[in-house]
Every structure is written in C-alpha cells, then in structure tokens.
Design a protein that fits this description.
Blueprint lengths: L5 H18 L7 E4 L19 H8 E2 L10 H10 L5 E4 L2 E2 L11 H20 L1
Parallel strand pairs: 1-3
Antiparallel strand pairs: 2-4
Helix pairs in contact: 1-3, 3-4
Length: about 130
C-alpha cells in the first residue's frame, strides 16, 4: 500500500482477486494457507534483541486465527480461491502473541475449538 491511497490499494486487490478466480486453475492449487494479522497501533521500527527485523517481528507475533481481531481480507481471498474450483486442504499459520505482542497463554483444547469455529465461519462467509 506504500505510495497508494487506500482506495487504489483496495481496487488493486479486487482486480487481482478477480484475475486469480478467472485465470488460476483450481486443480493447480494444492493447499490454501491462511494468515490474518493484527493492525498495530504503533509500527515496529526496530529489530528485536535477537536481530529479528520489523516485518519478521510482525509476522512472528501478530498473526491470530481468522475472526480473532485481525484485519486482512481473508474472506475475499478465500472466496477468490474457491471460485477457481479449488476444494483442497485449508491450513492456518498462526503466531499470536496478542494484539500488544506481549504473549498470551493458550489452552490447546480451547484453541483447537476456536480454530474449528474459524474454519466453519470462513466457509459460511465464503458461501454468501
């Protein structure tokens, strides 16, 4: 989005998703890996103590399950992929230290149930 207005970035994304849905054969997609992300109130500008640079830090700590506080257009992207005819595996890449990045405790059983609900909701949203 750097150097573009939000409107132009949104239009570019919509155009790209239409092209994806029309031009990519669904049988050439083997796995749909989905990640959401928290929108940070303050950008990360410095590497951490171990040298992990800002984008790495953001990617490493601020990626919740879908519908858990993130802002990325996961439904739009998933819908475009499904419009290709893809009917394969969904995978979620989650590295969630909470919206503040300070960490949070997670009960594995609760997390698994939350992930199942997220998948069900994603499919429901895509069907609309």
């Amino acid at each position: 989005m750097e150097g573009k207005s939000k409107e132009q970035a949104d239009a570019d994304l919509r155009k790209s998703l239409v092209r994806l849905a029309k031009e990519v054969p669904g049988d050439k997609i083997y796995l749909l890996q989905i990640s959401d992300a928290y929108k940070l109130t303050k950008p990360i500008t410095e590497a951490d103590e171990e040298g992990l640079r800002p984008r790495g830090r953001w990617s490493h700590d601020f990626r919740p399950l879908p519908f858990s506080g993130g802002y990325l257009p996961i439904v739009d992207v998933a819908r475009a992929v499904l419009e290709t005819g893809f009917r394969g595996w969904f995978s979620y890449e989650v590295f969630d230290s909470g919206p503040d990045g300070r960490g949070k405790s997670v009960d594995l059983e609760d997390f698994a149930m939350e992930a199942k609900r997220a998948q069900g909701r994603l499919l429901e949203e895509c069907a609309k």
